[in-house]
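User: Can you predict the 3D structure for this chain?
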Amino acid sequence: MYCRECGSQVNGKAEICTSCGVRPLNGKNYCQSCGYSTKSEQEMCTSCGVRLNSSVSSGQDHPSGLLNLAVCCFPLLGLILYFIWREDKPKSAKSVCKWAIVGFVLGIVLYIAGMLIGALSESMYYY
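Assistant: Here is the predicted structure, written as structure tokens:
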């Protein structure tokens, strides 16, 4: 990966570029994939064809409380959204994954509680 600010090659998981001190995907001067010089308005690299990451898209990564509630009720939706968002929106992906797990575990607990209550109420009729 290349820093979008200075064009230096950086580790793919680097938070800060060691050459210029800026977050690698926050700049607009170079392609993050090939290091080719880009314009600030570009959305795609003309050298390698990759979509350019920018601070605008990463700044929109805010988990939604309403979406987390929906995912808690429908855990499969959370799993699907996690795999869709894990590269582009890591915070939102982690949030929906967490709430999908909570919803799944809550569903199992409620199912077991329902079975126990049903078994207890069934046994009370015979006495």
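The chain has a mean pLDDT of 87. Residues 65-124 form one domain.
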